[in-house]
Design brief:
Length: 98
């Protein structure tokens, strides 16, 4: 059984259809990783981008840290999982603006 160690939620205005999580130490090296066909999550070392269905939306982003994989499945209108490796563990939420 998994155990939730920490969680955080933030609301952001998403512009240009993309938001991301990036490790603070990589803020100067943000790029838009390639994704497999049909995937809306785009992971790369130290970052994960999410392509949003609309160019401008308000989004609530929740990040959870689990000791082991959580039990069961979440119930969401759109759901996709990916793994990310954030060496330092200090994250920023950002959008790709003009």
């Amino acid at each position: 059984m998994g155990r939730l160690l920490a969680a955080g939620t933030v609301e952001v205005l998403v512009e240009n259809g993309t938001l991301g999580l990036v490790e603070r130490s990589r803020e100067g090296d943000v790029h838009y990783p390639d994704a497999t066909a049909g995937s809306w999550l785009r992971p790369a070392e130290g970052m994960v981008h999410a392509h949003c269905p609309s160019n401008v939306i308000d989004a609530r982003v929740r990040v959870e840290l689990w000791e082991r994989e959580p039990d069961g499945k979440g119930v969401w209108s759109h759901s996709e999982e990916t793994e990310g490796f954030f060496r330092a563990g200090e994250l920023c939420v950002y959008t790709l603006g003009e």
